[in-house]
Each structure stands twice: as structure tokens, then as C-alpha cells.
């Protein structure tokens, strides 16, 4: 059993996305600044906004990386409101391709092209418009 979690700080108005097998201990570590020079060290008021159980660490890491790569507060707030979006993302998961190599050998010079091709089809704009 593994978890994806999202923390929120009112002080910084920022979200933190992470994964763990022990959600209570990890939240305590963040609040006590156990991790030196970490993003969560910037605030003391982190609150748990979401915890999503996954079957294994690989799935939790996949979701964590997916959300972080999107770099969108809108996406994060939609995920918090509707947990089924995370299941949808996992169900549409495909193997990662080399960083700048697309299907059929297409080479992308700009990593943003890769993001559009491989991430946006899995998370359509309809989710962002809900």
C-alpha cells in the first residue's frame, strides 16, 4: 500500500505533491522540517488536502511526476475535488518514451512538444473546464 498526497500552505499559497507508504509519519516530518533545505521548509502550516491510495510505489510515483510535470494549480484543485481523475490517469498510463523521442521515431527539439503529445491526451482539457 502506497499513497500519493498533496499538502497545502495558506502562508505560501502553494501545494506540495509527494508519495509515501506512511502518510501520518510523512506529514509529521514535513511539519517538523525533518527534511532540510526542502520545499516544505518554507512554511509551518502545511495541511493534508488529498491522500490517494495506490497499489504500489510505482503508481504513486507515476501520479506524483504526472502532476508535477503539468505545473498547474488548476489541475491540482480539480484532482482534490475529484479523486476519480487520478484513477483515469492511471488507467490511461502508457510506458514512458525516451525524453525527446516520440512514437515512430519522431524527434522533438522542444521538450514542451513532448509534454503536449504525451501528457495532454491523457488529461484532456475537458477536465480543466469542469
TrEMBL record:
State the InterPro entries in the record. GIY-YIG_endonuc, GIY-YIG_endonuc_sf, UPF0213_domain
Matching entries from PROSITE patterns are given as: GIY_YIG (PS50164)
Q: Which residues does the UniProt record annotate as the domain GIY-YIG?
A: 1-78
SUPFAM superfamilies associated with the record: GIY-YIG endonuclease
Q: Which family does it belong to?
A: Belongs to the UPF0213 family.
Q: What is this protein called?
A: GIY-YIG nuclease family protein
Q: Which organism is it from?
A: Salegentibacter chungangensis
